Amino acid sequence: MKERFVPFFPQLSLEDFTSADAIIVSYSVTDMASFRKAVHCLSMMRDLANKQPPSALPLGPGLRSKAVILVGNKSDLARVRTINTENGRSAASKYDVKFIETSVTIHHNVDELLVGALSQVRLKARQAAALSCKHHAKFTSRAKNLWNRLMQKCDFRFHSCDNLHRL
């Protein structure tokens, strides 16, 4: 797995997006500008992925084919916090990505983030492999579409963005 840091995705290319196994978009909970940039990055990635033909990605267009996690960092700085947890969860739900808050300073949720990112990569790989089988692909796709429509009507997707060990 190739590791690369791309600050604010100034010239995000299709190759950058498709070669990554996991994408972690981080912002500071004490800085509204960093949150806006993180949300802008999610928007750019979604737009870039939607420009591809549906057959180009294992699970079609969008961020669903990649393990994408929105991370609110500096959660230990409660007194100077400007972005609350609900804003982060809401952005994660809007872009259908996972969400977690961390504090690198006190090592809060850092291990959970790394283990969760690996779990997401493995889950996405398993899901792509299952969908590549012709027998399972049609049934799984129909069942998944039905399930997604039901889940969108209920508000369960909002709660599942916190669980890094589930799709």
TrEMBL record:
Coiled coil: none annotated. The lineage of its organism: Eukaryota, Metazoa, Ecdysozoa, Arthropoda, Chelicerata. GO terms for molecular function: calcium channel regulator activity; GTP binding; GTPase activity. The gene is AVEN_175582_1. This is Uncharacterized protein. Belongs to the small GTPase superfamily. RGK family. SUPFAM superfamilies: P-loop containing nucleoside triphosphate hydrolases. Keywords: Phosphoprotein. InterPro entries: P-loop_NTPase, RGK_GTP-binding_reg, Small_GTPase. One of its GO terms (cellular component) is plasma membrane. It comes from the Eukaryota.
